[in-house]
Amino acid sequence: MMKWETGADYLVAFLKAQGMDVLHNYPGGTIAPILDACVREDIAIYTSRHEQGAGYAALAQSRLTQATGVVAVTSGPGVTNLVTVVADAYFDGIPLVVLTGQVGTQDLRKDLPVRQRGFQEVDTPQVMGSIAKKVFQPTSVEQIPEMVEEAWLLSTSGRPGPVVLDLPMDIQRKPLQACSPRNLASSPSCFNEAAAADFLGELVQSIGQAKRPVLILGQGVNNDRSSKLLLDLLARWPAAVSCSLSGIGAVDTKHPSVLGFHGHTGSQLAGKAIYSADLLLVLGSRLDIRQTGTRTNEFAPSAKIFRVDVDQGELETSRVTLDKALVADTAEFLSALIKQLPEQSIDLSDWHQQLALWREEFPWIKQRLPGICPEELIRTLSENVKGQVVCVTGVGAHQHWVARHFRFHRPERILLTSAGHGAMGYDLPVAIGAALHCPDHKILCVVGDGSLQMNIQELGALVEHNLDVSLIVLDNQRLGLVSQFQLMNWPEDTACGERQSPDFVAIAQAYGISTRCISEADQILAASHWLVSTDGPKLLHVAIDAKHDILPMLLGGQRIDAMWPYYNADGSINAEDSFEGRD
Question: Hey, CA dihedral for 265, 266, 271, 274, is it positive or negative?
């Protein structure tokens, strides 16, 4: 049945037909028709305090639910303020539909020799083009139905990511005669059994021969379906397991096969296992420089390397030389692999005995400094929080303490962090999105004093919705991770150390948030009990010594199994290459 409606009406009705019932936004004139259409479609509108806040809340929605996140912002500064979020979604493979307002088509600069034609105009296709799967900009209202359908499917097909619909004001408001929006089927599977047959045959043969196998897991398998399949796989083939930062939790981090995450700030145990492996199976992981280090030819020198990824470009440009590669959905691949393995568990007891010895040889390095030990704080929080948990981090030293010492396993305990883009300010707005879309989960947001200040204005949205989010601020009055890097390479820390933090407690209280402060080790347990037993928004301020660093660390020029610092024969830490400029 045909009906008359505006372009904005049709677009919002289409999104409603796909199951969208929430729109994250920061308002402005050129996106107003979309917001008006949402009211008529009975779609809830969540307004953040900044475009980044809106975008990150929508990103959390996408990560935690079966729904693609949708965010709407106005033109000009609305677009440029959202760039960081779009980059995060692009690099970490998160489906996101981004609606940006735009000046009317008659005011677009186009090819004119001027910088700007319309007020608050930026060239959104140029700005977003390199960090989105595609940017659409309709020049007639009749183009909207086809463009919105393509955008929706593209966001989830293949390797997921963000798509942008840049919507001129006049196109949103023009009448459109169109069919009622249809619900689109899910993207078809990209698993080709015939193409996979040779890969699977050689892999199964290698699995039967391997004595020191390692599974490397990335973002591509960190989902509920793949997580269950991975447990089925490990029951038949108990390989050692290591993860990228974004793969943490795909298998329970307390599972006996799991060694931790590997690479720059990861586990030396995992690095030792990878270096010694005779077989690597890499699933949904980019093997970027933070994972492999600079000596890629010595990443796993004795191993036959099989790699499965949905992104053909990643396989074709692999930094690590591959023996076999397969373009496939990793869940479909796991299902096919399990069917070809014997039900009785393959005996890898000798390998696990060796791993147990290395686990004792390479414990996490713990610095002996006064006051609160960050590692102990994170472990205590992990042990005391029960039920379903989402733990969000910012970017910095605190991010890696959480990745190392908090227990994660899908679907009960999920880590959300900015991995590929590494964006400070990710933390609080993502925690807000997590609380809005998963109200039955406990939301912990572990932040550093630097990262929290990037989007601290979102405390207002936290209180407005009275969300049960626990903020844990690790305050060392230092941009710790960058400061550590600076002192490892130059004699002085010119910009990152000895930074005066604001009074986070006073700021939180001004918003009406409950607060506590701790600075001594014997206060950790009571504070963790307060966090997990108190409802509503709350902030725990944790003062820590500025000299706490991330140790060990994989530096440029080092092999994956030889992180700095290392242990002497007597068990002491060898830090003869210690940072210059340190007190």
Answer: negative
HSE, CB side, 13 Å, CA atoms: give it for residue 310.
22
Residues with Cβ within 8 Å of 243's Cβ and at least 6 positions away in sequence, in order, are 216, 217, 218, 249, 250, 251, 258, 260, 261, 262, 285
Start-to-end Cα distance in the chain? 76
Rg (CA), the chain: 25
CA distances (Å), origin 73, targets 54, 83, 99, 166, 423: 9, 11, 6, 10, 20
User: Would you identify the CATH topology of the domain 374-543?
Assistant: Rossmann fold (3.40.50)
Give 49-59 pLDDT, tens digit per residue. 999 999 999 99
- pTM of the prediction? 0.94
- Find where tokens 């060898």 sit: 574
pLDDT of residue 576: 52
Same fold, 2-179 and 193-361: yes
Q: Residue 371 has which token pair?
A: 């006051």
> Which class would CATH give 193-361?
alpha beta
Closest CA to 187 of 155, 162, 213: 155
CATH of domain 2-179: 3.40.50.970
- Residue 319 CB neighbours (<10 A): 14
Report d(CA 48, CA 55) in Å as an integer: 9
Query: 496-520, pLDDT tens digit by residue?
Result: 888 889 999 999 999 999 999 999 9
- Helix axes 83-91 and 51-64, enclosed angle (nearest 10): 20
In 3D, which of 61, 43, 97, 54 has the Cα closest to residue 78?
A: 54
Q: Kindly state the helix (H) or strand (E) to which residue 442 belongs, with its residue range.
A: strand 442-448
Q: What are the counts of helices (DSSP H) followed by strands (DSSP E) for the chain?
A: 23, 22
Three-class SS of residue 428? helix
pLDDT in tens, 474-501: 999 988 888 888 888 888 888 888 888 9
How distant, in Å, are the alpha carbons of 52, 81, 310 from that of 28? 14, 13, 37
205: buried, middle or exposed (CB in 10 Å: 19+, 13-18, 0-12)? Answer: exposed
Domain borders along the chain are: 2-179, 193-361, 374-543
Which secondary structure element, helix H or strand E, spans residue 517, and what is its range? Answer: strand 514-518
Crossing angle of helices 51-64 and 427-437, rounded to 10°: 50
What is the C-alpha to C-alpha distance for residues 439 and 245, in angstroms, rounded to an integer?
Answer: 25
Q: Which one is predicted more confidently, 238 or 364?
A: 238
DSSP class of residue 103?
Answer: -
